[in-house]
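Risk register update: the risk of archive-format incompatibility is retired. Evidence:
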Amino acid sequence: MQHDLIIQGKTASRSIAESLAMRIQAREVETVRPTAFRLIDAKSDDGVAAFCAKVQLDHARVPAERRLGEFRLLAMDMDSTLITIECIDELADFAGRKDEVAAITRAAMRGEIDYPESLRRRLSALAGISEQTLARVYDERLKLSPGAGAMLDACKALGIKTLLVSGGFTYFTERLQARLGLDFTHSNQLDVAGGVLTGKVIGSIVDGASKAAALRQHMTQLGLDQSQVIAIGDGANDLPMMAEAAVSIAYRAKPAVRERASYCFNYVGLDGLLNLFR
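Archived output:
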């Protein structure tokens, strides 16, 4: 099977691509975008990771014949993946406890703390916050990650269904679903009483296992197999979901996630997905 090497990033150039192509005995270089190149029929990947890290490029060795339109479902994490923030950290900021909560979030994403336990600890810091704070975070702080819109537009044009699977909260996932035209969402529902957050969620916590289960459920409903699925995430709780997909992408991710993903996006935006497959 022929494999091509994709290199992409702000520092990408034709001269860099041609230099690397000689090293790995690629047959030719194709310009995908001004900052993305396909090195066709790459015979080797020796030294590629070190070379690309030095010049701050993302790289991916992909089956030459694979087409983006062959995929039927794109599953995504929300916080620090589809969007730039961790919503729970921003909510905690309004309670004056952002540093404390953000430290727990980082540890959980690295896999150092059991996710349900980490969420319970972080939620407790939100108890007593006005429900209106949710709107302030959404309106004032929530931003899409670079390239998110272009990626979603291209996937929708190809008929690829989109699933937002989050350990975050329905307040945000439902609004993003309406705003972006996402097909499905799965997340935690915050408990609210008397106009304030109680510091709890309603029902079971959405953890790594339930993220994977949600993806499998939608695959079954759509009649899909693993080969038709892409999953994108950044934290340890995304790994079970990512393992269900044929292609998994670690987006600005923690080391444990980068090690187990099919491809890593450390420098490009989410629209880097569009450069991987023809």
